[in-house]
User: Which sequence fits this backbone?
C-alpha cells in the first residue's frame, strides 16, 4: 500500500512526455478531484515567428520524434492553403503514402510496445517486467511481428519522406523527389507482408476483448462528443472535412479545416501546460470531445479497404449501434486503423501515378493566412499560420491531438481514482490503472506542450488542505 | 577503386552518429566513404541511433562492425572493441527503448532470432561535439587513418 512516502517504480511509463496525476481528497478521505497535468513548456509556436514559410514543414517536424510526419504534412498543407496552391496528384499520393507509413509505425509502436504489456501481464506484475522487454521474453513471436510491422512503416517514412526520423521531402507545391520503381516494389512487398502480420494482431485483440468485455466496457467509460476527418461517411486520415458527432452518434457539425476556430476554442488551466480545447457551442467544460482512433471509428460508417471494413463492422456490432465510450476501445480501434493504413498503403503503391515525374509545381513567395489539418495517429492536428508579404511567419498556432483529448484524459483518471483510492491510499497493483487510462489516448505530451525530455508519470495524493499525503513516481 | 577490391559478403558495417553534432557523425562519414569506395557492394547502413527495427537484419550477418565516435588518447586515432550480446533474459529496468545500445540489439538477435553476429565496434577518436555538419580537423585526420584500416578490414 502507498503511504506518505514516495514510491519509485522504474523504468519509464509507456507514454510520450512528462505527465503528473494529482489526486485531492476531501476531509472524509474521499476523492474530491483528480487532475492530469503536463508540466513541461517549450513554446514552439513562439520561435516559429520570423521564420520563412518555406522552413515550416521541416522546422515543425522537430516538434516530435514519434509523429514528425504529421507535423510535416499539416505544415505543408497550411503553407499551401496560405499560398493558394495545390500540388500535383502524384505528390498528393506520395504524401498520403508517407502518412500511412507513419500511421503504421506509430500505431504498431503504441499497441505492441506500450499497450500490449498491460493486457498480457497481470496487475501485480512488476513495472519493470510489464514492458516491451517482458513481452520479448514471454511472447517472442508477437514481439518479432511487432518489430516487423513497425519497420514497414519506418521504411516507408524513410523512402518517401527522405529521412527515417524527421522527413524533409514535402515542400510547398509538392515533393522534392520522385519515387523509383525499385523503391515502390520494396515497399509493396513489405506492406503485403505487414498486412498478414497485422491480421494476427487483430485476432489477438478480438480474443482479448471477447474474454474481458464486461470489465473493458466499464473502464474509464463516459459519454462525450467525437471529432474526426471524414470522406463522405467513411474514415479519412489525410484530406477531408472535419465532423463532430454527439454522444448518441448524431452529426453536430461538419466544417472545413480553415473554419476550425468557429467550432473549437481553447482554455488554459493552471494545472497543465497543455491547453484544453472544447466545442465552442457547448462551452467549457461541457464541450468535451474526443479524437483519435476510437473517435474516428465512432464517426466513420465505413473504412474503404476490404479487411479493415470487415473489422469495423464487427466493432460496430459490439457497440450496438451507439458510439463506443470505454477508453480501452481506443486500442481495439487503433489496430483496425493499423490494418487500414497498411491496406491503403498497398493501394497507393499499386497506383502507377505515384511514380509520375510531375511531383512539384513552382510557387511564388507571398503572405496571407492558411490552415492545414490532418488526422495524426493521435487525432486531428491543426497548423494555422499567418505570414507577411516577405513570406515570414507572423503567427503560428498548433492544436495537437493530445490537447483535444486533454479534458477526456482528465475525466478518465478521475474515474480511475474514484475506483482505486480507498481511505486515501492506492494499492500498489492499482497504480498502473492510471497509466492505462492515459495510455488509451496514446498521448504525445511533448507535442502537446511542444516539450522534450524524459517521460516519467508522477501521481500525487493531497488532502483538502493541499498537503501531500502520498506520491508515486514512475521513471 | 580497383576491380580486384572485393567487399566481404558476410559483413554488415553500420556507421552511427548525429550529422549535426560535428565529430559525433564520424561513423556516418566513414560508412558513406566505404560505400562509395566499394561501389555499393559492401553491406552498409548509416544510422543516428541503434534501433530494434534492425535486429532481424543484423542477425542475418556473420559479422557486424559498428563505427562510432569515441573519446580516445591523442596518440590513438581509433580503437577496435569487441561487442557481446547483453544479458538475456533482459535485466529488470536495465534498458529503455529510448536508450538502446548495441549489446541490447545483439541480445535481441539471440532472443528473437536465435542467432547473433560476431560484433566489433570501431571507435574513432573524436572530441568536438558542437553544432556543425563538418568534422573537426583532428577527427578528420583520425577518420583518414581509420578509413585505411577499414578498407583492409572490409575487403578481407
Assistant:
Amino acid at each position: 500500500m502507498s503511504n506518505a512516502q514516495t514510491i519509485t517504480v522504474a523504468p519509464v511509463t509507456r507514454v510520450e512526455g512528462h505527465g503528473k496525476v494529482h489526486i485531492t481528497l476531501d476531509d472524509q478521505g474521499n476523492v474530491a478531484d483528480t487532475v492530469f497535468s503536463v508540466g513541461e513548456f517549450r513554446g514552439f509556436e513562439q520561435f516559429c515567428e520570423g521564420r520563412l514559410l518555406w522552413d515550416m514543414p521541416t522546422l515543425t517536424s522537430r516538434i516530435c520524434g514519434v509523429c514528425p510526419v504529421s507535423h510535416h504534412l499539416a505544415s505543408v498543407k497550411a503553407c499551401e492553403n496560405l499560398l493558394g496552391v495545390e500540388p500535383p496528384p502524384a505528390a498528393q499520393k506520395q504524401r498520403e503514402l508517407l502518412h500511412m507509413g507513419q500511421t503504421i509505425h506509430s500505431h504498431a509502436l503504441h499497441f505492441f510496445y506500450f499497450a500490449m504489456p498491460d493486457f498480457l501481464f497481470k496487475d501485480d506484475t512488476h513495472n519493470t517486467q510489464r514492458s516491451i522487454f517482458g513481452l520479448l521474453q514471454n511472447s517472442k513471436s508477437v514481439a518479432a511481428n511487432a518489430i516487423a510491422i513497425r519497420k514497414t512503416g519506418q521504411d516507408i517514412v524513410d523512402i518517401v519522406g527522405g529521412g527515417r526520423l524527421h522527413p524533409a521531402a514535402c515542400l510547398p507545391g509538392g515533393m522534392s523527389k520522385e519515387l523509383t520503381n525499385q523503391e515502390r516494389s520494396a515497399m509493396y512487398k513489405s506492406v503485403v507482408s505487414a498486412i498478414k502480420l497485422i491480421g494476427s494482431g487483430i485476432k489477438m485483440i478480438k480474443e482479448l476483448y471477447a474474454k474481458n468485455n464486461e470489465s473493458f466496457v466499464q473502464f474509464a467509460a463516459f459519454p462525450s462528443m467525437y471529432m474526426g476527418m471524414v470522406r463522405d461517411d467513411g474514415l479519412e486520415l489525410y484530406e477531408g472535412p472535419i465532423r463532430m458527432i454527439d454522444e448518441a452518434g448524431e452529426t453536430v457539425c461538419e466544417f472545413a479545416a480553415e473554419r476550425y476556430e468557429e467550432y473549437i476554442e481553447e482554455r488554459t488551466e493552471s494545472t497543465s501546460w497543455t491547453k484544453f480545447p472544447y466545442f465552442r457551442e457547448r462551452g467549457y467544460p461541457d464541450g468535451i470531445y474526443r479524437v483519435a482512433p476510437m473517435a474516428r471509428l465512432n464517426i466513420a460508417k465505413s473504412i474503404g479497404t476490404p479487411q479493415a471494413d470487415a473489422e469495423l463492422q464487427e466493432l460496430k456490432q459490439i457497440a450496438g449501434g451507439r458510439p463506443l465510450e470505454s477508453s480501452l476501445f481506443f486500442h481495439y480501434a487503433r489496430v483496425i486503423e493499423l490494418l487500414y493504413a497498411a491496406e491503403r498503403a498497398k493501394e497507393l503503391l499499386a497506383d502507377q501515378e505515384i511514380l509520375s515525374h510531375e511531383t512539384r509545381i513552382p510557387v511564388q513567395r507571398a503572405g496571407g493566412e492558411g490552415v492545414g489539418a490532418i488526422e495524426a495517429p493521435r487525432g486531428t492536428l491543426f497548423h494555422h499560420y499567418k505570414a507577411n508579404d516577405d513570406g515570414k511567419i507572423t503567427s503560428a498556432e498548433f492544436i495537437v491531438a493530445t490537447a483535444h483529448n486533454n479534458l477526456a484524459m482528465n475525466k478518465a483518471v478521475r474515474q480511475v481514482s474514484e475506483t482505486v483510492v480507498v481511505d486515501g491510499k492506492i494499492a500498489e497493483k492499482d497504480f498502473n490503472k492510471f497509466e492505462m487510462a492515459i495510455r488509451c489516448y496514446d498521448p504525445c505530451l511533448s507535442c502537446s506542450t511542444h516539450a522534450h525530455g524524459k517521460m516519467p508519470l508522477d501521481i500525487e495524493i493531497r488532502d483538502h488542505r493541499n498537503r501531500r499525503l502520498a506520491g508515486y513516481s514512475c521513471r | 577503386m580497383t576491380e580486384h577490391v572485393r567487399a566481404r559478403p558476410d559483413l554488415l558495417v553500420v556507421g552511427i552518429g548525429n550529422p549535426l553534432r560535428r565529430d559525433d557523425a564520424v561513423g556516418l562519414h566513414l560508412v558513406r566513404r566505404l560505400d562509395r569506395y566499394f561501389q555499393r557492394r559492401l553491406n552498409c547502413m548509416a544510422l543516428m541511433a541503434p534501433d530494434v527495427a534492425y535486429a532481424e537484419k543484423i542477425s542475418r550477418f556473420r559479422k557486424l562492425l559498428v563505427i562510432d565516435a569515441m573519446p580516445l588518447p591523442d596518440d590513438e586515432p581509433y580503437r577496435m572493441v569487441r561487442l557481446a550480446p547483453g544479458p538475456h533474459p533482459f535485466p529488470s529496468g536495465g534498458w529503455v527503448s529510448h536508450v538502446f545500445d548495441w549489446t541490447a540489439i545483439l541480445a535481441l538477435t539471440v532472443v528473437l532470432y536465435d542467432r547473433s553476429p560476431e560484433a566489433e565496434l570501431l571507435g574513432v577518436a573524436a572530441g568536438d561535439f558542437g553544432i556543425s555538419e563538418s568534422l573537426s580537423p583532428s577527427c578528420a585526420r583520425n577518420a583518414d587513418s581509420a578509413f585505411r584500416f577499414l578498407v583492409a578490414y572490409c575487403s578481407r
Notes: The mean pLDDT of chain A is 88. Chain A touches chain B at residues 10-12, 113, 126, 128-129, 132-133, 136-137, 140, 143-144, 147-148, 150-151, 154, 164-165 (CB under 8 Å). The first strand of chain A starts at residue 6 and ends at 9.
